[in-house]
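To the structural biology subgroup,

Please find below the input and predicted structure for UTP--glucose-1-phosphate uridylyltransferase, which we are adding to the shared reference set this quarter. The sequence is reproduced verbatim from the submission form. If anyone notices a discrepancy with their own records, reply to this email rather than editing the shared folder directly, so we keep one authoritative version.
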Amino acid sequence: MTNESTNGAPLAVGNQTRHQRKVSSTTEFKELTKRDAQHQLAQELDKLLRTANANSNEKSICELEFKGFQQLYMKYLQGVGPSVQWEKIEPLPEDAVRSYGALKSPQKDAIRQMLNQLVVVKLNGGLGTVIIIANHGDRIDIPSGAILESKIVSGNLRILDH
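Predicted structure (tokenized):
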């Protein structure tokens, strides 16, 4: 006869008694947090879905996209291991970082030329999302009907937030 226990109490198997491994509170907390995140996401997506026009094709398209997003999010939550492979990180060369005081002041003409190459774009009145175009003449092509934020999300731009 087997008595199963989930709280770490002894298990009786035949005439022998042995202890079941207790799940650590940290592991249990992580699992509860993941389940809560999945539940919250499902609730929020359901709220969004209710705003779609029920009589149009829009709702079915949204349902498909939301299901795909939920699957992707669950995949992300199930991921284990470090996102950074620290053994591949190499230290910077000694001269890579200099103190501000050690830098030479550029000439006024050089400052003017550098400023002519800098582009700052303010998005949505935020606190200062900056897009830097590295070289003079570089440009960001936004296709007709697309918006800058979608280019950022697709990974085509490097954004510095501060």
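Summary notes: The CA atoms of residues 117 and 136 lie 5 Å apart. Residues 17-78 form one domain.

Regards,
Lab coordination
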